[in-house]
From TrEMBL:
<dbReference type="InterPro" id="IPR023214">
    <property type="entry name" value="HAD_sf"/>
</dbReference>
<keyword id="KW-0378">Hydrolase</keyword>
<dbReference type="Pfam" id="PF00702">
    <property type="entry name" value="Hydrolase"/>
</dbReference>
<dbReference type="InterPro" id="IPR006439">
    <property type="entry name" value="HAD-SF_hydro_IA"/>
</dbReference>
<dbReference type="GO" id="GO:0016787">
    <property type="term" value="F:hydrolase activity"/>
</dbReference>
<dbReference type="InterPro" id="IPR036412">
    <property type="entry name" value="HAD-like_sf"/>
</dbReference>
<protein>
    <submittedName>
        <fullName>HAD superfamily hydrolase</fullName>
    </submittedName>
</protein>
Amino acid sequence: MGTQGEGIGGFQTDEEDGRIRHLLFSARGVLVDWNPRKALAGQYPQGVIDMVLDPCDEWGIWRYRTLMNLGWDEERALTDYESTHGPAVAWVFRLYLERFALTITGMQPGMDELLDGLHDQGFTLWGLSNTTRSHARLAERKLETLGLLDGALISAEEHVQMPDSLFFQLALRRFGISPTQAVFIGDSPDQVEAAESCGIRSILFKGADHLREEILKLS
């Protein structure tokens, strides 16, 4: 094993010896199974839910979720959303945020066992999250397996999110690791491309079984 050097944020970095030590996971979509409709199910007719969660609405929920993921607080997002959609529709957004814990439906299939096995094998596990700190804490409380992560980078605290390559550069600095000793696992090609542009070997997530096979190829 290489000697230790001081990393940014108090972590230690290993001198490079070519061995993969660190696995960086995009939390939502790779670790966490997430269904936004669960927050509103049974509260409104399906047509209302479809309207509020419409990904094509330029000034819809997803625009404001992105802004929250970049550091806006909930009240600012709700006030701005209401200025476009009116108070009745804004109340639906508020209810969505109040019931957000229901959108966290569990770990992705098979990832409980895989994460536990990777931890036992000595990999250091990190989470990368396009989310707010409060929503990250909800996931941590609901999903015990996330406690295996050695740390996480939260977009709302950094004011930048995936797939911006700066987010991956910040992860390396915060965790004090070399890109040559890390592998990123993401659920979208643009995330993978951004991580690879920072010199991080990457895997596009296609399920726990596929990921297990890909990680075996690293050893």
